[in-house]
Amino acid sequence: MFHKNGPTLIELIKQGLSSTQKGYDLLAPKFDFTPFRTSPIILDAVMRQLGEKRKYDDALDLCTGTGAGISALLKIVQNNIVGVDWSEPMLDEAKKRFGLLRHKVDLVHQDIFSLEYREQFDLVTCFGAEGHIERHRQKDFIGIIHSSLRSGGEFVFVTGEMPSLLSPALWIFLGFDLVMRVRNILIKPPFVMYYLNFLLPNVLNLFKKEKWSSVKVVPLEIWNQPTPLRLVIATKK
Ligand SMILES: C[S@@+](CC[C@H](N)C(=O)[O-])C[C@H]1O[C@@H](n2cnc3c(N)ncnc32)[C@H](O)[C@@H]1O
Fold first, then answer.
1. What is the pLDDT of residue 2?
2. Residue 85 maps to a domain
C-alpha cells in the first residue's frame, strides 16, 4: 500500500482536514509514493486498448496531478498533451518529469471548472479524480469535456460498478464516504472525495444522446486477467 517514502498517518490526517486543493498541495512531494496515483499497470492497459483502435493528435488530461496519465498518453498521442491541475505543487512534480518535453507537454495551473477550451482535443482523459467531482457538478464536468473535444473525439475514464453487499470494498468505500460527508458538514472548507460518486451504470446518464454518438463500456483486463474495472469511452457527435 504505502511506500516508506510516502506520507505518515498524521500528514494524511492534516491533508484531509484542509481543503481538497490545499490537501494536494501538502501531499504533492510524496504523492508518487501513495496508492492515490493511478497505477502504470492500469494506465498501460487503457493505452493498449485505445492505441489498438486509432491514433490521437491532441489530448487533455484533467486533474493530471504529477502526470501519471501524461506519461501513459505519450505512447499514443502524436502532437500535444495538455495536463490541467489546480495544485501548483502537484504540477511542480509533473514539471520535473516532463521538463524536457516542453514541445509536447503543456502543464496548466487551473481549476478544471474554469476551462474554456473549444474543440481543441480528440482525446480527454481523467484518471483517479472523479471522486473529487461533487454530484451536483457532474453535468458541468461532462459539459466542459464535451466543449473541449472535436467532433468524433473521445472522453475516456476508468470506473466500476457498485461493489456487491458481500464485498469488503463496498463497506470500506461506504465508510470512507460517510466519514467525508460528516467531516464536510462539520469542517469548512470541504475536502471533496467520494469513492461511490461516479459509478456505472448511473454515470452513463450524464451522456445525452443528442451530444454523444456512443458510450462504450469495455472490461479492463490486466495481464489477460479480468478485473472489476471498466474502461468507458464516450464519443462526441
Ligand atoms: C488523486 S489525484 C489524481 C492525479 C492523477 N490523475 C493520477 O491519476 O495519478 C487528483 C488530482 O485532481 C486534482 N483536482 C481535484 N479537483 C480539481 C479541480 N477542480 N481542478 C483541477 N484539479 C483538480 C488534485 O489537485 C489532484 O492533483
1. 63
2. yes
φ, ψ of residue 45 in degrees (nearest 5): -65, -40
In a domain, 169, yes or no: no
114 and 71 assigned to the same domain: yes
- Considering the domain architecture, whether residues 216 and 102 belong to the same structural domain is answered as yes
CA–CA distance, 186 with 200 (Å, rounded to integer): 30
Each residue's pLDDT tens digit, 61-81: 999 999 999 999 999 999 999
Per-residue pLDDT, 4: 80
If you write DSSP's letter for every residue of 5-41 in order, what string do you get? Answer: TS--HHHHHHHHHS-HHHHHHHHGGGGGGSTTSPPHH
Residues 40 and 72: beta-carbon distance below 8 Å: yes
Task: Note down the domain range covering 12.
Answer: 1-36
Ligand 1 atom showing the smallest separation from residue 133 Cα: 16
With bands split at pLDDT 50, 70 and 90, how would you rate the model's confidence at 5?
A: confident
Instruction: Ligand 1: list residues with CB < 6 Å.
Output: 20, 24, 36-38, 63-65, 68-69, 84-87, 90, 111-113, 127-129, 132
Amino acid at 180: M
Nearest atom, ligand 1, residue 61 CA: 6
Report the separation in Å between the CA atom of 64 and the middle of ligand 1, taken as the mean of its atom positions.
Answer: 6
Look up the pTM and report it.
0.96
Same domain, 104 and 212: yes
Tell me how many domains the chain contains: 2
Which of 27, 37, 39, 63 has the most ligand 1 atoms within 8 A of CB, as the residue to mutate? 63
> What does the pLDDT look like over 98-153, one tens digit per residue?
988 888 999 999 999 999 999 999 999 999 999 999 999 999 999 999 999 999 99
**Together in a domain, 27 and 89:** no
